[in-house]
């Protein structure tokens, strides 16, 4: 057993190569091999969002608070709210973030495959975000 106390987990700012706007990441679990579980609590300032990306084994988002937006490549922008769960299939190109005027916090859950949890693509344009 390993207990990670709340006071030992540090928030970190999202890297500009992967996010637009202010985003804070708090690791929840990065289980050691052979386990694959990975989870982050991610908080997005209004208008902040991820870049386009995929996950080799898919991703689940559980919205903890606020209002957000999600989209898959070629699909409509969808609104998500506290209590909503979103599933992205393995390899599905997508993005997620906060609504323009709301903070949004979600739990992002994914599994690593050969040490890889995400493949990052280009930034989401303002046109894609507001579509």
- Structural class assignment: mainly beta
> Which spans have pLDDT < 50 for at least 5 consecutive residues?
none
The gyration radius over C-alpha positions equals 14 Å
Would you list the SSEs in sequence order as H and E?
A: EEEEEEEEEEEEH
Specify the helix fraction band. under 10%
Distance from first to last alpha carbon:
46 Å
> Number of helix segments?
1
Shape: globular
The major β-sheet equals:
8 strands, antiparallel
The pLDDT mean sits at 95
Number of strands: 12
How much of the polypeptide forms β-strand, as a percent range?
A: over 45%
Any overview of this molecule?
Strand 7 and strand 8 form a beta hairpin. The longest helix has 5 residues, at 126-130. The termini are far apart. The strands form 3 sheets. Strands 1, 3, 4, 7, 8, 9, 10 and 11 form an 8-stranded antiparallel β-sheet that branches. This protein has 131 residues and is mostly beta strands. It is built from 1 helix and 12 strands, in the order E-E-E-E-E-E-E-E-E-E-E-E-H. The model has no long low-confidence stretch (mean pLDDT 95). The protein has one helix spanning 126-130, and strands spanning 12-13, 19-20, 23-30, 37-44, 49-50, 53-54, 59-72, 78-81, 85-88, 94-98, 104-111, 119-120.
